[in-house]
Write a structure and sequence with these properties.
35% helix, redox-active center, globular, Glutaredoxin, alpha/beta, 21% strand, 5 strands, transport
């Protein structure tokens, strides 16, 4: 019964909705393909944190949830796109990702900052505040 309540229903359940009204999970989405990346990252009206990761990457498993939590704390001022480099090699090559995790900060379709590897919450908060301009 509890699992059913976690599954969104209705119009807000469509995968194309990156910007929900509730903070939390809706601030993060998985990139489906190149055109999805173009629509939801490059053309985003909000700043976007792009997490290039891989299933086999240990540090990614540590950074991913930490970064999601920090993005959710920004209350909708920034969104997070997750890009699996094994599923989207073309995007990884286009954005010169040579190691994972690589995290890009994008504003108006441009990369304005990036880091590679694990960061602690204080470092992530500083990274996000710089992106948002807070």
């Amino acid at each position: 019964r509890r699992l059913l309540s976690l599954t969104p229903r209705g119009p807000s359940a469509s995968p194309g909705r990156a910007f929900g009204t509730s903070a939390g999970r809706r601030s993060t989405f998985n990139v489906q393909d190149g055109s999805d990346f173009q629509d939801r990252v490059v053309n985003s009206p909000k700043p976007v944190v792009v997490d290039f990761h891989a299933q086999w990457c240990g540090p990614c498993k540590i950074l991913g949830p930490r970064l999601e939590k920090m993005v959710a704390k920004q209350e909708g001022k920034v969104v997070m796109a997750k890009v699996d480099i094994d599923d989207h090699t073309d995007l990884a090559i286009e954005y010169e990702v040579s190691a994972v995790p690589t995290v890009l900060a994008m504003k108006n379709g441009d990369v304005v900052d990036k880091f590679v590897g694990i960061k602690d919450e204080d470092q992530l908060e500083a990274f996000l505040k710089k992106l948002i301009g807070a």
